[in-house]
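Recall from the previous lesson that a structure prediction takes nothing but the amino acid sequence as input. Here we apply that procedure to histidine kinase from Undibacterium terreum. The sequence below is the only information supplied.
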Amino acid sequence: MKLWKSTDTVGSLRGQFLRWLLIPLLLLVALNAYSVYRNALDAADLAYDRSLLASARALSERVSIVDGKLVANVPYVALDSFETDTLGRLYYKVTGINGEFISGYEDLPTLPKNVPRSQIYPALVHFFGADYQGQEVRIAALHQPVYDDRMRGIALIEVGETMDARRGLSRTILIDTLVRQAALVLAVALMVWVAVRFVLHPLMQLKSNVENREPTDLSDFDPELVHKEIRPLIIAMNGYMARLQTLISGQKRFIADASHQLRTPLTVLKTQAELALRENDTEAMRHIVQSIAATTDSTVHLANRLLTLARTGHGAAEGAMARVSLRDIARQVCTELALPAVKKQIDLSLEAEQEVTVIGHELLLHEMLSNLLDNAIRYTPQQGHITVRAYAAAGQAVLEIEDDGPGIPPAEQERVFAPFYRAGTAVESNPGGAGLGLSIVKDIALLHNGNISLSNVVAGQCLRVVICFPVD
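The prediction returns the following tokens.
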């Protein structure tokens, strides 16, 4: 019988308890019943063999030598008791010293030569089975010494009994054993069922608590209400709900921030569109349309950053974690953003001589470096310098970007990682920024177990961003 497989649907806990307890118990009960039955049969055989031996001894006492001949003086009453028993039939045979028939049933089977003597009784007795008159019989063959002044020798007294009594007793023992063992199994099954029902009561109570909770209630369950073995599961559930609560709170905060940030440019677009509809001067309308285009570009940039931030917050990316090359990512990003750097006459250089790999999402790492380099290009003045580095140091993979921009004051270097926060120097250099770039960078770095740090190379300016990733 198949009890359980890892690919099966997990069924009833009560059913599994009963199967795992009762099936081994049934096997043990079957073995015990067989053992008890065999022991009882052995005891019954021993008792019946002793009775046969007693009958043979009683008969041997009536064997004597008269006038030089061996005779068996068996009265009619004794003969009748030998021939018929209450539960079966008895047969006897007396054989003389020289193998001659003396008395009883002459065709009763004679003792075979290979039957060993019984070691249980202090007598020269042999027990064996045979077929007689179409019936199975058990025979006790007793060697009885006889002697007088003229002769001496050993007579053979055989007493046979049909197996009816033994078989009846065997059936009685078997039925009694099975009834007792079945009653034991039923009692154990009932106790297990009651015990499991009692033991599962805390889980049923927990189930009721879960069903009765409001959808917005993500508070912890009390681990002390369940058994010690179940508490790790409850603690894990509480941890999961805490993470879920953090995710929901982040989503709510993101939706609130996004709606707040998008409301302003959308309002400006609406206002500019209304002005364009009222304006009849072609030149003035051209300026308004240019403003609408600039506002649209800024809004699209903000929307793209918001989508990237949302995807980063969920840890989603195309493809699973894989080994990726930071040098290849840095080379690709520098190539993609080379044109904006050339337009500002910025000297963009890549220093990545050695191969550096990490386990991560290639798309998100690309997005992270793109944000950093895009910020560096935006805030670096004309004819400035930007250096991108990828290298290994102290057992870590390092990405580093250094620019000639205004830098970030030390007091604000931690705050700039918050969504929509912008340092004062950034607002002065680029009033149209979204304030999401460094927040996206930090989230992606944390997703890859990275550590990000900011510093100013020169006092108050020339920002350096260093991101260190563990190397497995």
